[in-house]
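[Discussion] Sanity-checking designs against the backbone

I'm trying to build intuition for which residues belong where. Below is a structure token string of 230 positions. I'd appreciate it if someone posts a full sequence so I can compare it with mine line by line.
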């Protein structure tokens, strides 16, 4: 196991592993213990009391973080020629169709989100092996398959993210950067947690949110009091 650096030891000393912090406290503390020499990502990990193997307990959704993610999201709009100007005007980084389908088929996936139209989805089907494992396959449920291309691009650029519980029952999501002011991190964390609460499956019994941890890149995890989100 790698030895901790002096900064990492100091950061760990500031986090009480026996305490569950309020969102306000955690948002301030995660900034304080971020030791990376770059603008680290701040991530939230929420363990849910669900069985993702059962369709009626799958938790998946979208949320627009009020203060954005702090990340420059690269968007590919796979659209027909009549929608290209709309996509470009909304801020899509890459716009086109057949040429980008060919690039993806060759292994190119240098984007964060792909937005497309219902009529184009048939062409994307054969690329599922490339896009699926990378979480890039457009989906009507997340708003990335739509005729309103401009709104979809604008929403993603503004901080709209989609999330999905993994096979171990945990939802992972980036909620900002260490450079964010604490109140903005708090706002983003609260928005995501509130959305998760609204998505509680009726089949989920007992305590829904088992634990919540917030951390930045290379920082210790900070437990958040989950009782306030029951």
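Best answer:
Here's mine. Compare freely.
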């Amino acid at each position: 196991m790698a030895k901790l650096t002096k900064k990492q030891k100091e950061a760990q000393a500031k986090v009480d592993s026996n305490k569950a912090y309020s969102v306000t406290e955690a948002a301030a503390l995660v900034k304080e213990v971020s030791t990376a020499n770059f603008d680290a990502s701040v991530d939230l990990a929420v363990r849910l009391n669900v069985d993702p193997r059962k369709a009626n307990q799958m938790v998946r959704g979208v949320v627009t973080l009020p203060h954005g993610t702090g990340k420059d999201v690269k968007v590919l709009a796979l659209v027909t020629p009549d929608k290209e100007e709309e996509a470009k005007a909304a801020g899509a980084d890459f716009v086109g169709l057949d040429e980008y389908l060919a690039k993806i088929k060759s292994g190119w996936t240098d984007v964060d989100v792909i937005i497309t139209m219902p009529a184009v989805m048939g062409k994307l089907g054969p690329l599922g092996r490339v896009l699926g494992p990378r979480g890039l396959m457009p989906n009507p449920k997340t708003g990335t398959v739509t005729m309103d291309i401009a709104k979809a691009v604008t929403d993603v650029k503004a901080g709209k993210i989609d999330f999905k519980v993994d096979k171990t029952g945990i939802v992972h999501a980036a909620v900002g950067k260490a450079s964010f002011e604490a109140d903005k991190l708090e706002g983003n964390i609260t928005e995501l947690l509130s959305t998760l609460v609204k998505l509680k499956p009726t089949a989920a019994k007992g305590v829904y949110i088992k634990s919540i941890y917030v951390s930045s890149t290379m920082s210790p995890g900070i437990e958040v009091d989950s009782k306030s989100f029951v």
